[in-house]
Specification:
Number of strands: 2
Oligomer: single chain
Strand content: 5-15%
Shape: globular
Low-confidence stretches: none
Order of helices and strands: EHEH
Number of helices: 2
Number of domains: 1
Radius of gyration: 14 Å
Distance between the termini: 35 Å
Largest sheet: 2 strands, antiparallel
Strand order of the largest sheet: 1-2
Amino acid sequence: MLIDCDTCVVRGDACHDCVITVLLGGPPSGVELDDDEHAAIGNLAQAGLLPPLRLVPVHRAPNRDIA
């Protein structure tokens, strides 16, 4: 899982309550988590030990050549 804060729709509004901000101190340029790390953070958040990941990525439409 690639977490790119620059592409998060709620960046700014939800940063204060996002696990990435808690762990790293501010929105980074990007973080890559493997499946085990993602699951571990989810379990810690579910137990109330960390805030959840608040990432809402922007879904961009692929560029299409119009002829």
